[in-house]
Design a protein that fits this description.
The protein contains eleven helices and seven strands. The chain has 300 residues and is of the alpha/beta class. The protein has a single domain, classed as Vaccinia Virus protein VP39 (Rossmann fold, 3-Layer(aba) Sandwich), CATH 3.40.50. It has a seven-stranded mixed beta sheet with strand order 3-2-1-4-5-7-6, with helices on both faces. α4 links the parallel β2 and β3. α6 packs across α7.
Length: 300
């Protein structure tokens, strides 16, 4: 994968347009994902909408917090009050809000105008503080050694030049600063069972599509034709592209829908409820689709 990393303005523009129109707004049914954020609701209804999508996000990310904990409590950085934190990819602001409520001095970027607009409105209505800006992760608008912590959940694998994004992240992170990042995992059951076997072999898509084209079509928004670009990485890839980061944790997670999606939609949630959280997390720690890495930038 790394040898194919290069800037591509046309593809980047396509990704920007796609994510602006197909925000990852978690819904009750996964078939409704990526239908686009409800940005024109009155304030009260908009706040209800945010609460709803945050609750669905928390449900699907069962691995990210203990029962009755706040969203992503076990994966988000702790003790960051007063720390300068950069979020790469605000999405619809679920993580942005949690980071801001922890007392961080937050800067959050996204290439999608929709994501920036929704997150800004979320902050305004909830009276939260944060600098939410539209920016490209390949060219971060910040000085060297600015941030104490950088957080990114499933973002830079959609950039044509993920290596350049990594270089920029390392540039703006302070020596000794912490990086917490999730990228899609090449050596995952989802990749092999769902993308390659289910669609590539059983649906005969390998006859007309490359492996990368299959990933694009059957990762994000597969029920609406797929996103322009979705790349996968191994643990070794992550360590290689973040050469100035010493990682002390690399673990993979998997949403239960990778199993339940093989069944009719009316049965999916019931099937997921029967899968024990702890057992599923243990099984997917090496072969899950969401590869989460935590490390610190070399230096003081």
């Amino acid at each position: 994968m790394l040898k194919n990393e290069k800037s591509n303005d046309r593809l980047k523009k396509l990704s920007e347009q796609w994510w602006s129109s197909h925000s990852q707004d978690y819904q009750e049914s996964s078939d409704e994902y990526y239908r686009g954020a409800k940005i024109d609701l009155p304030d009260e209804n908009f706040l209800d909408y945010l609460e709803e999508i945050d609750s669905y996000f928390q449900r699907d990310a069962y691995f990210a917090q203990n029962r009755n904990d706040k969203l992503f409590e076990t994966l988000l950085p702790k003790s960051i009050s007063g720390s300068r934190v950069l979020e790469i990819g605000c999405g619809l602001g679920s993580h942005s809000e949690r980071i801001a409520r922890k007392g961080a001095i937050l800067s959050s970027i996204d290439i999608s105008k929709t994501s920036v607009d929704v997150t800004k409105r979320r902050f305004e209505l909830k009276k939260l503080k944060g600098d939410i800006i539209k920016a490209d992760a390949e060219y971060l608008p910040f000085d060297d050694d600015t941030f104490d912590v950088i957080w990114s959940w499933g973002v830079i694998h959609h950039s044509p030049n993920t290596v350049q994004c990594a270089s920029e992240i390392m540039r703006v992170l302070k020596p000794g600063g912490e990086l917490r990042i999730m990228l899609y995992h090449e050596r995952s059951l989802y990749c092999w069972l769902n993308v390659y076997l289910r669609y590539g072999v059983f649906a005969l898509k390998f006859l007309q599509s490359s492996r990368q084209e299959l990933k694009n079509k059957y990762t994000d928004g597969r029920h609406i034709g797929g996103a322009p670009l979705s790349k996968y990485y191994t643990r070794k890839d992550v360590r290689q592209i973040f050469s100035k980061i010493s990682f002390h944790k690399q673990i993979s997670f998997e949403q239960k829908k990778v199993i339940s999606n093989f069944f009719p939609s009316k049965w999916r949630k019931t099937i997921e409820n029967y899968i024990p959280d702890a057992l599923y997390t243990f099984v997917m720690a090496r072969v899950g689709f969401l590869l989460f890495s935590v490390g610190k930038k070399n230096g003081k």
